[in-house]
Amino acid sequence: MAVASSDTAIRTGRFTRTLIYVVLLLFVLFYILPLYIMIVNSVKPLSEITGGGMMSLPSAFTIEPWAKAWSTAQVGVEPTGLRPYFWNSISMVVPAVAISTVLGALNGYILTKWRFRGDTILFGLMLFSCFIPFQIVLIPMAAILGVLGLSGTTAGLVLVHVVYGVGFSTLYFRNYYAAFPTELVRAAQIDGAGFFQIFWRILLPSSGPIIVVCVIWQFTNIWNDFLFGASFASGNGAPMTVALNNLVQSSTGVKEYNVHFAGAILAAMPTLLVYIVAGRYFVRGLMAGSVKG
Amino acid sequence: MGFLDINNVTKSYGSVEVLHKVNIAVEEGEFLVLVGPSGCGKSTLLNMIAGLEDITSGEIRIKDARMNGVHPSNRNIAMVFQSYALYPNMTVGQNITFGLEMHGVPKAEREKAMADVAKLLQIEQLLDRKPGQLSGGQRQRVAMGRALVRNPDVFLFDEPLSNLDAKLRVDMRTEIKKLHQNLGTTIVYVTHDQIEAMTLSTRIAVMNGGYVQQLGTPKEIYDTPSNLFVATFMGSPSMNLIRTTIRIEGVAVYAVTQNDRGEEVRLALCAPLDAIKSYDGKDVILGIRPEALTDVEGADHRSSHIESIRNTVTVTEPAGSDTFVATTIGGAECVARMRADAEVLPGQQAEFAFNMEKAVVFDPESENRIL
């Protein structure tokens, strides 16, 4: 076809166009395949999987693996399902995200609007904490938790994640507030607002996008963390990721793949939800460089 | 002792002193403009009055109370910023009353004060909008409203018009002047625009390099600039500066230079002999404003002393109300401000009338004014 059918910049023949779509479609299938396998296998009886039908749609639909993974499956030594560990994770991730975000916001506010001697060096050091590998701090951290009497507790895990998270959250907020006009802070000072009033009334209401970015980042990291959870939480206090591992590793009887798949989806669900709810603010927040006056 | 006293104030950043012993006394109801090129220290001085920057040495007093170390909110001042600094998350009404709220003023009083200010500035219909929905001129009004509502002792303006387009700038300038005349408030206003300084102020402090070069009324600054910097900074087109030699003959004092044909021309100075005696035979710089250098018919008839030089016109620039005519005298490019219908053509000879009453003379070494 030599006739130009549209005024777009690139003209392609029907064959090329078909080829492009076929390739794209293959990519899409390739990307969706793991999710497909997880979902279909979590809703079919174990016999169907072991019978070799892993790729096929379930012939007998059942939500029994989900119920089992949630409340009755063998995790470690107890048949509790993942439910208690899910709440462990929630009670770890919510305070850890909240505290590290608030601290990051305060740090960013101070580092940009209340400059002091050595603030750049301090910020550099805080940034450095983003690049320290987890493994290096395991033993010192264990010692500190022991001294504080927080070994094996959820509070201890919260502390660990706050310490690790504050570097990133400070980075986010500092860069965001650096573009925030200092004249606004000065105007508020003249108006008689104090340190926290300026933060609360002037800066925070304009910080929506960066708060979303920070929360998504921290939530995903802390929820998905395995190393700290495995190292510092014991037995019943373990977070979801560790419990999922224990569920899959439990060596009693047959491997219940359908239950494992359901458990894995349950473990991934909260981060997925956070992305779906707040994801569209994520890119917007990362792109936001300045605040319009 | 004035209403606002700036006594021997200096400012240093580390070992670098950026303001050197500034002394200004502002009376109640005065409109003081700090004017100078960027980096002259005018904004720093304003921020020190506001309390946003520390005073390195010296003191600032408002209503005879020492302000060093006093928090900005306790100085009873209000400031209008260059970017207006309106809180983006609050409505116009909340912006205006935020300061009152922070000072614990009851809600009913706040509402009344806001209504009064909104009426004065004609922004009543904007009170529920966010700053992002306002035009530049409207934001400017809101920023002024926020300052006015506090009923402060001193208003501080930090280049408030420089973000507006040219026409709006002129309108707002008039409006600020009107506001000052009606309310009789004390204002310190920073600008780099010498026309703003001339039109708004009751007094001007011309600053450069951290020094106050001259402090005086607009007329004093314009007619008798204390040095070459003030002479060239204030006025547009700027003052013509011609290198001349002083020659004293009896009681007559002449500034001698050349026209563009290389012929010697003598301009009699109306100066008391004593003031200039020591400069006999020495080079000086003669300063004359474009409007004191005109065509003969356009010269000021009340002036007792007009000198005229015949010289070649190099360029004419008709500006509608006047015609600016360029010519070369004493090797320096000079601009004369002639009547709009003066008959001058480039390349032709014309008569240039010097109003010597308005002429000033500078020492080329110290750059200070002699006469």
List keywords for this structure.
A: mainly alpha; MetI-like fold; 13 helices; disordered C terminus; B: 371 residues; Rossmann fold; OB fold (Dihydrolipoamide Acetyltransferase, E2P); 9 helices; 24% helix
Oligomer: heterodimer
Low-confidence stretches of chain B: none
Radius of gyration of chain A: 25 Å
Would you list the SSEs of chain A in sequence order as H and E? HHHHHHHHHHHHH
Give a description of the structure.
The complex is a heterodimer of chains A (293) and B (371). Chain A is mainly alpha-helical. The relative contact order of chain A is 0.14. Chain A is globular. In chain A, 71% of the residues lie in helices and 0% in strands. The termini of chain A are far apart. Chain B is of the alpha+beta class and 371 residues long. Chain B contains nine helices and 20 strands. Chain B has a six-stranded mixed beta sheet with strand order 6-7-8-3-9-10, sandwiched between helices. In chain B, strands 13-12-11-14-20 form a five-stranded antiparallel beta sheet. Chain B has a five-stranded antiparallel beta sheet with strand order 15-19-16-17-18, with no helix packed on it. The two termini of chain B are 30 Å apart. The model of chain B has no long low-confidence stretch (mean pLDDT 88). Classes of the chains: A mainly alpha (293), B alpha+beta (371). Chain A binds chain B through residues 181, 183-184, 186-193, 197, 201-202, 205-206, 291-293, and chain B through 50-52, 71-74, 77-79, 81-89, 98-99, 102-103, 131-132, 139, 146.
